[in-house]
Amino acid sequence: MPQDNTVQSVERAFKILEELATEKEGLGVTELASRIGLHKSTVHRMLTTLLSLGYVEQNTSSEKYRLGMKILFLAEAILDRMDIRREAHDLLEELSSKANEAVHLVVPDGFHAVYIDKLDSNKTIRMFSQIGRTVPLHASAVGKAILAFADKEFVEEAIKQGLTKFTKNTITNPKELLKHLEIVRKQGFAIDDEENEEGIRCIAAPVFDYTGKVIGAISISGPTVSMTHEKVERLSKDVIDCANKISQRMGWQPNR
Question: Whole-angstrom Cα distance, residue 31 to residue 64?
Fold first, then answer.
């Protein structure tokens, strides 16, 4: 097979996997082909190969395709090599028990932040967030905690990507965002006050490595009915302390 066709096949396979990742219940061949702009026969052929390899599975009754369990093998291999996740988990458990809200750990991924660990609260309400999902840097507490301590050049590039409006509270003005990030730097934590998702409030603090570079952030998130402004203020010290402990495990020295 010519090299160009091989590369094209690989690209198409990943397009299919990425699209399936967005639908928990799976997708039929026709809808999947429409979404990624390929002919049904091409998609069906790719799915047959992915099915035989175990990377997708098919519901026999609905005939829809969804991601297969073998994907977990790849995902776990990536997560296992991420020292920050291993070093942070027990500290996140402590923070979760104190806050009784969802707790997250993220790392930057381009101009987004990706969840690599999550602990739900024991409440019946569950956060929409999940491991592997990304959030925008400018419209999330974890993202703003990262931006506030990132290099100036990176922040400028992030702003150039565009400040998409998600809710009426999203900061979309570059100057306003820069002023906001100054406040985050001074206080050591960031707040997402229904800026990414209506009805959800979060507080986050940055995590640093041994060089002092920001490598991630942790957050406490919950519905506004329980994550009141008073509770956010009360939890600010806890989230900073937890983030600092994780940073120290990663070799960070605060007075360096």
Answer: 10
SS3 205: strand
For the purposes of burial, counting CB atoms within 10 Å of the CB of 58, is it exposed (0-12), middle (13-18) or buried (19 or more)? Answer: middle
Task: Say how many residues make up the chain.
Answer: 256
pLDDT in tens, 86-123: 889 999 999 999 999 999 999 999 999 999 998 887 65
Q: Could you tell me the CA-to-CA distances from 100 to 142, 207, 229 in Å, in that order?
A: 18, 21, 15
DSSP β-ladder status, 112-119 and 102-109: antiparallel
Alpha-helical (H) ranges within 21-103 are 29-36, 40-53, 70-80, 83-99
* pTM (predicted TM-score): 0.70
Q: What's the one-letter identity of residue 65?
A: Y
Q: Which amino acid is at 187?
A: Q
Which token pair is 117? 């660990």
186-198 CB burial, b ≥16 within 10 A, e <16: eebbbbbbbbbbe
**CA-based end-to-end distance of the chain:** 56
